[in-house]
Specification:
single chain; 328 residues; alpha/beta; UDP-N-acetylmuramoyl-L-alanine:D-glutamate ligase; 2 domains; ten-stranded mixed β-sheet; four-stranded mixed β-sheet; 11 helices; 14 strands; globular; 1-phosphofructokinase; kinase; Tagatose/fructose_Pkinase
């Protein structure tokens, strides 16, 4: 199933079947546990973004590598998400998340099937073809074995020739490679968490979160401003229970996460990014985009396993957005 001219194209180079194993109590290393439930969901960060947007009635197309008979597609199809699967020889990986009853999640992620040069080229072409008429292209997650670490940077540079906005949410080597190429490949938006932002700025991730929790977002704003000085359009820093900070060329805002009972962190960051994009497509100004992002991330964290939030679960009024004084 494919969509012609989707509003949002999401890109997931390393998709996964996300298997969630729910325990009734704490996970103890070396012990035998009784499992309460097991569920399989189509995963990968870009796939999660596409699922959340589809639930909100936005036409999204998930571009990803998978052969026509891959079990992953039989798990993805029932969600109603439009997709463009680029045929490859390997099998989509299975990631396992073990969730405890207090919301603690332990993840075991497989590396993914390797992609050869021809598959990488085919995936690039599929992204560019579907991005031609899109408003946003969201590239998310890790890269599979065999894929060059600068692939996001290369595609982001090519997408500059198109009118679409580009968002990137990745980490480690691919994020470092993108940052090294900001001069020609800086996206309109990046969505780092505290560890990813710290890796780009040299800050301490725990200090970033603690400072925001205590109402002092200046270190986050300074790190984000440094990235924007290198060409990035906006930085949406998602900081877990501390909430989030949004910085762009016109200002900076912070929003605390509303009180929830956390059940699983799987997909929370992806839901935040989807909330931002949903608000942006609707023409919202930056404070409302941040409000929507935090509302979506919080709603996802309150859901079990890999479940993702529908619009009915979004409580914008529970999220207070505060402008950060421009004294930096």
């Amino acid at each position: 199933m494919t969509h012609q001219g989707p509003v949002v194209v999401t890109v997931t180079p390393n998709p996964s079947i996300d298997r969630t194993i729910a325990l009734g109590g704490p996970l103890t290393r070396g012990a035998v546990h009784r499992v309460q439930s097991v569920s399989d969901e189509p995963g990968g960060k870009g796939v999660n973004v596409a699922r959340v947007l589809t639930l909100a009635g936005i036409d999204a197309c998930a571009v990803l590598p998978a052969s026509p008979d891959d079990p992953f597609l039989s798990v993805l199809s029932p969600t109603g998400v439009g997709y463009a699967a680029v045929p490859v020889t390997g099998v989509v990986r299975t990631n396992v998340a073990v969730t405890e009853n207090d919301g603690t999640t332990t993840k075991l992620n497989e590396p993914g099937a390797g992609l050869d040069a021809a598959s990488v080229t085919a995936l690039t072409d599929a992204v560019l073809t579907r991005a031609a008429g899109a408003q946003w292209v969201v590239m998310s997650g890790s890269l599979p074995p065999g894929m060059p670490e600068n692939w996001y940077a290369e595609v982001a540079a090519l997408l500059r020739e198109l009118p679409c906005k580009v968002a990137v949410d990745t980490s480690e080597g691919p994020l470092a490679a993108l940052a090294a190429d900001f001069e020609r490949a800086a996206p309109n938006l990046i969505k780092p968490n505290s560890e990813e932002l710290a890796s780009l700025s040299g800050a301490d991730p725990e200090q970033l979160e603690r400072a925001v929790q205590h109402g002092d977002p200046e270190a986050v704003v300074a790190a984000a401003t440094e990235l924007m000085n290198r060409g990035v359009g906006a930085v949406l820093a998602t900081l877990g229970a501390a909430g989030a900070v949004l910085v762009n060329g016109t200002g900076a805002w912070m929003a605390a996460a509303p009180p929830i009972t956390p059940r699983s962190t799987v997909g929370a960051g992806d839901s935040s990014l989807a909330g931002y994009v949903r608000a942006a497509i609707g023409g919202a100004e930056e404070p409302r985009r941040l409000q929507m992002a935090v509302a979506y991330g919080s709603a996802a964290a309150a859901l079990p396993g890999s479940a993702l939030p529908s619009p009915q679960l979004i409580d914008l009024d529970a999220v207070q957005v505060v402008p950060i004084a421009p004294d930096r």
